[in-house]
Specification:
The protein is of the alpha/beta class and about 425 residues long. The protein has helices spanning about 5-10, 30-40, 70-75, 90-100, 120-130, 150-160, 160-165, 180-200, 210-220, 220-230, 265-275, 290-295, 295-305, 310-320, 330-340, 385-390, and strands at about 25, 45-50, 65, 70, 80-85, 105-110, 135-140, 205-210, 245-250, 255-260, 325, 345-350, 355-360. It has a six-stranded parallel sheet with strand order 5-2-1-6-7-8, sandwiched between helices. Helix 2 packs across helix 8 (about 180-200). Mean pLDDT is about 90; it is low at about 1-10 and about 395-420. Pfam families: CoA_transf_3. Keywords: Transferase. This is CoA transferase.
C-alpha cells in the first residue's frame, strides 16, 4: 500500500502503525482537514503539513495557549511535519506539485476549484499520480454550493441542528464544539481508508469528496430520519429525547444527573434502585412508548425519589445496577473519569521543552497501536529537509510539503478555510 522511499523521506522515518509507509500531503487547515490528517498520522502515516507563509490560521487562535502556542492548533496537528510554501511562487508551487506527485494521499479543504490555478486540483494531480487518493473537504459540495464558504457554525444553522438545540420556546443554540467539522474529518478518514483499500485491489486512486452539510444531515441520524421517513419536522425539546424517557438530566439532592432507561429492563432496574418497583408495572409506564407518552406523569415520581440522595451517590448505585447514568461534568471531570476507568486519556508527545500533552487517539488496536511520533510542528520546522528532498530525484512516496495549504486561506480559495471555527 505504501511507497515511502528516499531515506524514509528526508528523515521523516518509517513509522509504526497500520498506515505505516503512507505519505499524506496535507493541504488543509483549521479543523476538519487537520483533524483527519492527525488521525492518519496517529495510525502511522507520514503527514506533511503544507502551510502558507503565514501559517495555519489556528496558530493565532488564542486564548487559551500553551507556551505561546494556541491550544486549538496543538489539539489537531501532532504527528506532522510542517513546510511553508507560497503556492503563488514558482518554486513553492513546483515543490507542492512534486509533493502531490509523490504522495499516497492528498487532503485539502480549499473552496472547490480553488487549487486548479496551481495545478493541484484532482485532475492535474491524478494525471501525474494515478494512484493518488485525493480527499476534498468543502462546506457545501462541488455543485451549486461550491462558492459558499463552509464554516461549522453556518452548517449547524442551515442543517437544522441549531433548531434542535436549546430550550423549547427559547433561542436556538450552537453545540459547544464544531461538531460537524469533527464529523466531516472522521468521514474523510473513512473515505480515505476505503479508497486505499480499492487502490490496493485495483491500483487506481480516486477523488473522495466530503462536505459539511452532507456530514451534518447524516449525523443528525434519528432526527433526519424523522423527517425523511416520517415526514416529521423535529423541534427543540431542551434536554429531553423525542422517543425515549427517561433520557435526560434529572435533579437530585444536589446536582443534576443524567438518567437513561432506553429499554424496559433498564427502567425496571431504575425503579428498583429508587425503591419504587411497582412503578415499572404501572400500565402507563410499562413500555417505552408508554413512558414517552406519559412523561409528564412519570417525571415527578422519579424526581421525588432522586431528591433523597446526591448525584454522585445515585450514579454509583445506578451504574452498579446496570442503569446508564452519569454526573454532568466540566471537561476536567470528563478527563478525571476517563482516568478512573483506565482509559489513559492524555498522552505526551515530544520530549523536553517540546513535550506537549494531547488527547489520546480514540481507537485502540491490539496489533498496531497508535503512535505519537512528533509534537505539533512549528511553522516550516521541517521545511529545509523537505524542500531539499522534493527538489531531488524522487520515485514516489515521501513526506514533504511546501507552501501554504491555501495561501489565501478561507478567502477565495479556502473551502471556507475549512470553514470551521
Amino acid at each position: 500500500m505504501g511507497r515511502m522511499t528516499d531515506d524514509a523521506v528526508a528523515e521523516g522515518g518509517a513509522r509504526s502503525g497500520p498506515l505505516s509507509g503512507l505519505l499524506v500531503a496535507d493541504f488543509s487547515r483549521v479543523l476538519a482537514g487537520p483533524y483527519a490528517t492527525m488521525l492518519l498520522a496517529d495510525m502511522g502515516a507520514d503527514v506533511v503539513k503544507v502551510e502558507a507563509p503565514g501559517g495555519d490560521d489556528t496558530r493565532a487562535w488564542t486564548p487559551p495557549a500553551r507556551d505561546g502556542v494556541s491550544t486549538y492548533y496543538l489539539g489537531v496537528n501532532r504527528g506532522k511535519r510542517s513546510v511553508a510554501l507560497d503556492l503563488r511562487d514558482e518554486t513553492g508551487g513546483a515543490a507542492a506539485r512534486e509533493l502531490a506527485r509523490r504522495a499516497d494521499v492528498l487532503v485539502e479543504n480549499f473552496k472547490p476549484g480553488g487549487l486548479h490555478r496551481y495545478g493541484l486540483d484532482f485532475a492535474s494531480v491524478h494525471a501525474a499520480n494515478p494512484g493518488i487518493v485525493y480527499a476534498s473537504i468543502s462546506g457545501f459540495g462541488s455543485g451549486a454550493g461550491r462558492r459558499v464558504p463552509g464554516y461549522d457554525l453556518m452548517v449547524q444553522a442551515v442543517s437544522g441542528l441549531m433548531s434542535l438545540t436549546g430550550d423549547p420556546g427559547g433561542p436556538p443554540y450552537r453545540a459547544g464544539i464544531s461538531v460537524f467539522d469533527v464529523m466531516a474529518g472522521n468521514h474523510a478518514v473513512i473515505g480515505v481508508l476505503a479508497a486505499l483499500r480499492y487502490r490496493e485491489a485495483t491500483g487506481r486512486g480516486q477523488h473522495v469528496e466530503v462536505d459539511l452539510l452532507s456530514s451534518a444531515l447524516s449525523g443528525l441520524v434519528n432526527q433526519s430520519s424523522a423527517y425523511v421517513a416520517g415526514g416529521v419536522v423535529p423541534y427543540r425539546m431542551g434536554n429531553a429525547h423525542p422517543s425515549v424517557f427517561p433520557y435526560e438530566p434529572l435533579p437530585t439532592a444536589d446536582d443534576d444527573l443524567i438518567v437513561t432507561a432506553a429499554n424496559d429492563g433498564q427502567f425496571r432496574r431504575l425503579c428498583e434502585v429508587l425503591g419504587v418497583p411497582e412503578v415499572a408495572d404501572d400500565p402507563r409506564f410499562a413500555h417505552n412508548a408508554d413512558r414517552t407518552e406519559n412523561r409528564a406523569q412519570l417525571r415527578p415520581v422519579l424526581v421525588e425519589r432522586l431528591a433523597r440522595r446526591g448525584a454522585v451517590e445515585w450514579f454509583e448505585l445506578l451504574v452498579e445496577a446496570g442503569v446508564p447514568s452519569g454526573p454532568i461534568n466540566t471537561i476536567d471531570g470528563g478527563f478525571a473519569m476517563a482516568e478512573r476507568f483506565g482509559l489513559d486519556p492524555i498522552v505526551e508527545v515530544g520530549e523536553g521543552g517540546r513535550a506537549t500533552p494531547t488527547t489520546r487517539h480514540p481507537i485502540r488496536f491490539s496489533e498496531t497501536p497508535a503512535a505519537y511520533a512528533l509534537p505539533p510542528p512549528e511553522l516550516d520546522e521541517h521545511g529545509p529537509e523537505l524542500r531539499a528532498w522534493l527538489a531531488g530525484p524522487g520515485k514516489g512516496g515521501g513526506a514533504e510539503k511546501e507552501d501554504g495549504a491555501g495561501e489565501d486561506g478561507a478567502g477565495e480559495d479556502g473551502a471556507g478555510e475549512d470553514g470551521h471555527a
